[in-house]
Design goal:
The structure is a homodimer of 115-residue chains. With 115 residues, chain A is an alpha+beta fold. Chain A is built from 5 helices and 3 strands, in the order H-H-E-H-H-E-E-H. The relative contact order of chain A is 0.12. The first copy, chain A, binds a DNA duplex (30 and 30 nucleotides) through residues 14, 18, 34-36, 39, 44-54, 66, 68-71.
Chain lengths: 115, 115
DNA sequence: TATGAATGTGAAGAATTCTTCAACTTGCAA
DNA sequence: TTGCAAGTTGAAGAATTCTTCACATTCATA
């Protein structure tokens, strides 16, 4: 409640800041998935995955529904998928920027193309 | 180089996952700022701010330029600002969703409005 | 109802990240 | 030069987060 917005934001990003959690969210972008499938795709111990899923549940990024013997996870809102797409786009750009910078440093003045 | 993309992403988000760093990035959204101003706005010890700025520099999110006696920081690409805007939008939505859910739980069945 | 498969949980040590302190640079100006 | 203001840095203890282990739940079915 009294949590300042910038702190809420920081917490939100920290939640995204774990490889397993990122992969889970990305898998869920294509629709709900049972734990079993996540487990098959992610290569991590079951209890570890459970811990990470618990984090995602606590922060409301995903929802879990029991269906008989299995538990199905889903993104709690499509906004999450949107943010991930934005992040991917930006990361890709940043990385390719770095790469072309590197390339330029390696072979300097080869058909220079600056702004 | 051999770092899997999902790990790069996780690192990226972790970098954003700190209140001081978030505030710095938000202040820089409106243009370059000398450390002095950041310090005035953020309320944190100089050495702590420096540490966080160092993190942002290492991950290439910002650039620093010395101008005589002061050091001026800037976002290294407008993409960062874009991501922050996306995040703000999403967070705001998620929070308001939670709030209306809460409201509904508090006064149930008062003019129900579901999909 | 006894079993087993699918998941989840609390706890503890390992690993990371934060904060703070003291000391160090850089540039300017007395 | 000397001194001071503006920032930065390395190091270390504090705090947080991860991973893993042992054990618990929940369902379905034999």
């Amino acid at each position: 409640m009294a949590v300042p917005l910038y702190q809420a934001k920081a917490e939100f990003f920290r939640t995204l800041g774990h490889p397993v959690r990122i992969r889970v969210l990305e898998l869920l972008q294509d629709g709900p998935r049972p734990v079993r499938e996540l487990l098959a795709a992610i290569e991590v111990e079951p209890s570890n995955l459970s811990q990470q899923l618990a984090v995602l549940r606590r922060t409301q990024l995903v929802t879990a529904t029991r269906e008989g013997n299995t538990v199905v996870y889903a993104l709690s809102t499509p906004d999450v998928a949107e943010l991930l797409r934005a992040a991917r786009r930006i990361l890709t750009e940043m990385i390719s920027d770095q790469e072309s910078l590197l390339a330029e440093l390696r072979e300097p003045d080869r058909q220079a193309h600056r702004a």
